[in-house]
């Protein structure tokens, strides 16, 4: 009885440098790698915690908070939250500065934040595109 043949993996050097490219390709490659960086950063100031977190532009606010040990949830939210899908409304934050640097309000936020001030957002729905100051666990009424 014959067993199946084993595929042998072809080894490649993995080296992919400009020496293997045509002159036009090499020039293009250089200009792509040396052009001014499109990377934009955003700093997120968590006011209550007195912490500033740096993030790439477009970062999710809930993710950056959790990644940096910032507690977004009250007791109830800790026990039961939707995991960032905009369904539970427990990740509410108040944006005290830089609201213009955030992604537009989503339908989930419109639904969940009806009784909150306009400056409140759901952290899980927010993408940060510039500097912003955030108050976590804001009081329900001001
Ligand atoms: S985590 Fe549930 S709405 Fe943000």
Helix content: 10-25%
Distance N terminus to C terminus? 80 Å
The helix/strand class is alpha+beta
Low-pLDDT runs: 1-19, 25-35
Mean pLDDT over the residues: 82
Total DSSP helices: 4
**What compounds sit in this structure?**
FE2/S2 (inorganic) cluster
Please describe the topology of this protein.
Layout: H1 23-34, E1 41-46, E2 51-56, E3 59-60, H2 61-67, H3 75-79, E4 92-97, H4 107-112, E5 120-122, E6 127-128, E7 132-136
Parallel strand pairs: 1-7
Antiparallel strand pairs: 1-2, 3-6, 4-5, 4-7
Describe this structure in words.
The chain contains four helices and seven strands, in the order αβββααβαβββ. The chain is an alpha+beta fold. The chain has a five-stranded mixed β-sheet. Strand 1 and strand 2 form a beta hairpin.
Summarize the model shown.
Helices cover 21% and strands 21% of the residues.
What labels would you give this structure?
single chain, 142 residues, alpha+beta, five-stranded mixed β-sheet, two-stranded antiparallel ribbon, 7 strands, 21% helix, 21% strand, globular, disordered N terminus, binds FE2/S2 (inorganic) cluster
């Amino acid at each position: 009885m014959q067993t199946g043949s084993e595929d042998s993996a072809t080894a490649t050097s993995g080296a992919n440098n400009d020496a293997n490219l045509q002159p036009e390709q090499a020039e293009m490659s250089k200009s792509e790698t040396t052009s001014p960086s499109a990377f934009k950063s955003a700093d997120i100031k968590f006011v209550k915690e007195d912490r500033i977190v740096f993030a790439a532009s477009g970062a999710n606010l809930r993710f950056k908070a959790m990644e940096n040990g910032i507690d977004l949830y009250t007791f109830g939210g800790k026990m039961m939250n939707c995991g960032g899908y905009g369904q539970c409304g427990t990740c509410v934050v108040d944006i005290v500065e830089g609201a213009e640097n955030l992604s537009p309000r989503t339908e989930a936020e419109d639904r969940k934040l009806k009784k909150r001030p306009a400056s409140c957002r759901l952290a899980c729905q927010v993408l940060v595109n510039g500097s912003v100051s955030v108050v976590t666990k804001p009081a329900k009424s001001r």
